[in-house]
Write a structure and sequence with these properties.
Layout lengths: L2 H27 L3 H13 L6 E11 L4 E8 L4 H6 L2 E3 L3 H9 L3 E3 L19 E8 L5 E9 L9 H114 L5 H28 L2 H6 L1 H15 L3 E6 L6 H22 L3 E9 L2 E8 L6 H4 L5 H12 L3 E6 L5 E8 L1
Parallel strand pairs: 7-8
Antiparallel strand pairs: 1-2, 1-6, 2-3, 4-5, 5-6, 8-9, 9-11, 10-11
Helix pairs in contact: 1-2, 1-5, 5-6, 8-9, 9-11
This protein binds adenosine-5'-diphosphate and magnesium ion.
The site of magnesium ion (MG) has 4 residues, from helix 9.
Length: about 425
Amino acid sequence: MSKESAESKSRLLTQEYEILHEVARVLHSSQGVKSMLENVLSVLTGFDDLKVERKAGIFLADPEKKVLNLYCTLGEFSDEFMEKERVVPYGDCLCGRVAESGQLLMSESCFSDARHERRYDDMQAHGHYIVPLKTKAGSLRGVMFLYTNTNPSWYQHSQEVLLSIGGLMADAIEHNLVEEELAQYRNDLEERVAERTEDLNQANTTLRIEVAERTNAEKQLTIIREQLRNLSNHLQNIREEEKTRIAREVHDELGQSLTALKMDLVCLKEELPDQKPELQERMQTMSGLIDSTITSVQRISSELRPQILDVMGLCEAISWQAREYKKRANLQFDLNCEEVIINKEMTTELFRIFQEALTNVVRHSQADRVGIHLYQEEKQLILEIEDNGDGMAPEKINDSQSLGLIGIRERVLFFGGEVDFLSEPGKGTRVIVKTPL
Ligand SMILES: Nc1ncnc2c1ncn2[C@@H]1O[C@H](COP(=O)(O)OP(=O)(O)O)[C@@H](O)[C@H]1O
Ligand SMILES: [Mg+2]
């Protein structure tokens, strides 16, 4: 080898090395597939010994549809070219052939090469390098075409250099496409997360509003319930006062008048002449009538409000009421009451509860025994009324028509106490009232 050719060989090797290095750098440092490929085209068209012009382009392969899609170009191309070369089927023209064969192709002139099937009106004569962009694993990612002048003296290592550049490009395309796909996927995901978060936020706000509305409604309801309870208690008190007043008036006024009448009658009786026995008899009847009226007045007054309640307290009032019931109904009482010290209001309330429970026993239970217990346990006063009757149907306990039971419950709740209605059909009923002392 002459000294000159050795020198030119070494210069070429240096250039090859430089160009591969430059291509690798560009592939590595470019942002996005498009600018990366455009930069590679720029580098290649700057390599003198390839004899390429500043005219080149790259197709990306769509292996499923078996077409090449024009992706980027360098240099001037006509609109017609750009339009018609947008999609090139595999096997068509030079680029399609390379896509099919995967082999590099060199063509000396577009006009003399029969494989160059696509011609355009303003086409200038040119030669070609058509380079497959094939990954190391062998899959075709695209095809690159580089224009040369016609009949170039091919640079001897061009095939090896271009094929290895094509390989680098294919790997980079694959890598970038995967990355772009990943980025797209990530973006989509982020968008979806943002949308979902927004939805959730909205749902959360709606929910919060609903909760607030509900809480508000519940508060209102509690207030209304409280007002109703107060009203009911107020009415009970008025009723109780009224009853007390009427009971006293009936007892005092009527009772005293009747007693005076009775005394007058006794005096009159003494004045009556003996020879008028029918008058004596009338007088006797009158006296009997006055006695029974006095008894009625006492009963009515006691039923309205037993004086014993105010004078002797709850325990005595309960036993008195039990005795009264015993007279009228066929009931055995098992009384077990402790003396307790409570105010007048609570005495009245508990007595009325007891009366309602006892009335229920008589009216509904068919019982023949009633147990009544009044005792103190820790800081609670407990009143139990228990019968051995039919028991009450479970649905009656919370029935909105069970006004007697509702009344008991309301009275107890007003004092901050609680009440249980324990009953099973056929097993009697037990009403347990607990009030704080
Ligand atoms: N001790 C009881 N034994 C059996 N059933 C009862 C007893 N107490 C209440 N009940 C049942 O519960 C229902 C509701 O009682 P209450 O509210 O006092 O209403 P009322 O006595 O006006 O029917 C009664 O109709 C009755 O069926
Ligand atoms: Mg009742």
